[in-house]
Amino acid sequence: MKQLKSFIQKEFYHIFRDPRTIMVLFFIPIAQLLIFGTVIKNEIQDVHIAIYDQAKDETTLKITNKILSSGYFILDKNLENINDIESIFRKGKVKEVIVFESNFGDKLIKEGKANLQLIADASDPNMARLAISYTSGIINDYVKKMHPNLQMPLQIEPEIRMYFNEEMKSAYMFVPGVMALILMLISAMMTSISITREKELGTMEILLISPLRPSQIIVGKVLPYLLLSVANAFVIVLIGHFVFGVPVLGSFVLLMLETILFITMALCLGIFISTVAKSQMAAMFISMIVLMLPTILLSGFIYPIENMPKVLQVVSHIMPARYFISIVRAIMLKGTGLLFVWKETAVLIGMTLFFIALSVNKFKIRLE
């Protein structure tokens, strides 16, 4: 019994002196609980909408004020032309457009029925469903409470239209997200173990004393994986298009160039992880824990970023997959060009250069 007690004490000692074990046992479950608890929500918050009001009467003004005062929506723009709807959706910020017919208030009072149209950007089906549901609920509540003394039953009939995904196919949301997730994890993990493998096999010293410059070593490590990942991305796009019916409305060349940029960034991130990790296991652990969970939850892949707490919305800005998913959805589903995704492209270029600089600097330190 005394020996068993000593053995158990020894095991506790080994557990508590290992920071990685403590992280797995305590910090990661707490982090997962906090992230899942704050990210996974069925309600919406601060969704940007636009309104095309052809009536501009007291009734439409009251309905607009009720929608905006609910706390769920933010008015981004009042449209002056019906043709502006598609262009404002292509910019990506506005998620829903509310269209009031002309003489809306008069028809509602005289005929007891008026029509409006709810148009949502269904490139993100979850957000589209929530926005339409919330808007319809607010309008129905308004109808029940307005003019209670009138005998004529009042009815507002919303006509719903989903832009870029009329049939609300979930594949339109999952294919771009899964594409980003797969390319991020595979590219980063493949390269994250490359340098650590050299260290474990004892061949790192050969690389360090070779005439190759640090930048040449990085290129030599990245290029084979880059070509393989590009082929992988090409296959994913083809499967998404021919098997799941996801269209490629924009330039296929632009889509592949953006994909190559994202893969390059992920590979450089993996190289950086491999330079700081001491073993292949540690490199793979960092790649899985640091990249997989945040990519799923904080990139807008499944859960709309607008629904997240402000702190997590800020954190999501450092997630590369956020920008790539936005680019893929814009090109494949909306048919937009570089003018609509240049901001996201610039961010990915900046991240790529940042990780390249970190990796090269790490090699230089090793050489010195």
Question: Mind explaining what this structure looks like?
Answer:
The protein is an alpha/beta fold and 368 residues long. The chain has 2 domains: 2-40 and 167-362, no CATH class; 47-146, 3-Layer(aba) Sandwich (abc type-2 transporter like fold). It has 14 helices and 5 strands. It has helices spanning 2-16, 19-39, 58-69, 84-90, 104-110, 125-145, 171-201, 204-209, 214-242, 252-276, 280-298, 310-315, 320-334, 338-367, and strands spanning 47-53, 73-78, 96-100, 113-121, 155-163. A 5-stranded mixed β-sheet has the order 2-1-3-4-5, sandwiched between helices. The protein is elongated.
Strand and helix layout:
Elements (H helix, E strand, L loop, with lengths): L1 H15 L2 H21 L7 E7 L4 H12 L3 E6 L5 H7 L5 E5 L3 H7 L2 E9 L3 H21 L9 E9 L7 H31 L2 H6 L4 H29 L9 H25 L3 H19 L11 H6 L4 H15 L3 H30 L1
Parallel strand pairs: 1-2, 1-3, 4-5
Antiparallel strand pairs: 3-4
Helix pairs in contact: 7-9, 7-10, 7-11, 7-13, 9-10, 10-11, 10-13, 10-14, 13-14
